[in-house]
């Protein structure tokens, strides 16, 4: 028993030594699949000496954690807002941005929906409650079930800027829409409802969803890079000041060929 206890103690010391550093990452559910792949890489290789703790919650949560000092890296699928920068600086933290990949926001419907494409004015009309039946878009005579992200989401912020404000106004998503907390929740809800429409990051498009081209342009690597797809954005990691130590190691890994290959495998567009 004494030898067994000694062995357990030695093993615990070895694990503790192997994971000498810990990096906290919080924020965007859009960036989450990429950071999950990075987390798995580090956490399954103790020799790298870094253990990553990862959680989602949305871009606004990533910004708040950066402001409060409760994360080393804030994931955001939008640019940090001026008021968030000011709040961080007031706490002695200056946000530094790293664009690690690009993404498209893709309108999605159920595969059985006969509608095969959509325009920005039509999306605005749907999400502001002016178009309420699929027959107005050449589909079935059925009510449109509108699904949106919640207002703490960076994906919602991008949708608001590029769709809801596309006519120069400050239109809001109409009250009858369902507001969900993650890309995964939107994808699941649309996949189970033939009358639904939602929008997700490119990495969340799968065989259970039909992606709709916007203004005749399909979402993809080429169209995001050349700017022809109208709803694209950068995916960001933010640190409080220039990263050092283990935090810098994680950022550098993401920007390396291996990290950028991970971004591509997750359905994002690499920056390199």
Walk me through the structure:
With 272 residues, this protein is an alpha/beta fold. It folds into 2 domains: 11-101 and 236-270, 3-Layer(aba) Sandwich (D-Maltodextrin-Binding Protein, domain 2), CATH 3.40.190.10; 103-232, D-Maltodextrin-Binding Protein, domain 2, CATH 3.40.190.10. Helices cover 37% and strands 22% of the residues. It is built from 10 helices and 10 strands. Strands 1, 2, 3, 4, 5, 6, 7, 8, 9 and 10 form a 10-stranded mixed beta sheet that branches. The longest helix is centred in the first third of the chain and has 17 residues, at 2-18. The protein is globular. It starts with a helix and ends with a strand. The model is unreliable at 7-18 (pLDDT under 50).
> What is the element string, with H for helices and E for strands?
HEHEHEHEHEHEHEEHEHHE
Query: How would you state the average pLDDT, rounded?
Result: 92
Structural class: alpha/beta
Tell me the number of strands.
10
First-to-last CA distance: 55 Å
Biggest sheet overview: 10 strands, mixed
Strand percentage lies at: 15-25%
What is the overall number of helices?
10
Shape: globular
CATH superfamily of the largest domain: Periplasmic binding protein-like II
What is the fold named in CATH at topology level of the largest domain?
Answer: D-Maltodextrin-Binding Protein, domain 2
Fraction in helix: 25-40%
CATH class of the largest domain: Alpha Beta
What would you report as the Rg, rounded to the nearest angstrom? 21 Å
């Amino acid at each position: 028993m004494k030898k067994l206890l000694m062995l357990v103690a030695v093993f615990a010391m070895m694990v503790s030594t192997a994971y000498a550093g810990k990096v906290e990452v919080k924020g965007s559910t859009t960036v989450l699949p990429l950071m999950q792949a990075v987390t798995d890489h580090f956490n399954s290789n103790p020799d790298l000496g870094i253990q990553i703790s990862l959680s989602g919650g949305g871009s606004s949560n990533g910004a708040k954690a950066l402001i409060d000092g409760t994360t080393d890296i804030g994931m955001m699928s939008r640019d940090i807002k001026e008021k968030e920068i000011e709040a961080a600086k007031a706490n002695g933290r200056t946000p530094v941005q790293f664009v690690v990949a690009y993404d498209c926001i893709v309108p999605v419907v159920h595969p059985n929906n006969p509608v095969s494409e959509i325009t920005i004015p039509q999306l605005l009309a749907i999400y502001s409650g002016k178009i309420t039946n699929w027959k107005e878009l050449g589909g079935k005579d059925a009510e449109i079930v509108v699904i949106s992200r919640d207002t703490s989401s960076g994906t919602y912020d991008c949708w608001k800027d590029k769709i809801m404000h596309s006519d120069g106004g400050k239109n809001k998503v109409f009250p009858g829409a369902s507001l969900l907390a993650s890309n995964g929740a939107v994808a699941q809800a649309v996949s189970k409802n033939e009358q639904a429409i939602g929008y997700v990051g490119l990495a969340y498009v799968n065989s259970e969803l039909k992606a709709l081209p916007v203004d005749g342009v399909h979402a993809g690597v080429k169209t995001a890079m050349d700017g022809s797809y109208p709803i694209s954005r950068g995916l960001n990691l933010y640190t409080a000041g220039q990263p050092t130590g283990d935090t810098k190691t994680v950022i550098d890994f993401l920007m390396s060929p291996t990290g950028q290959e991970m971004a591509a495998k997750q359905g994002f567009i690499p920056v390199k």
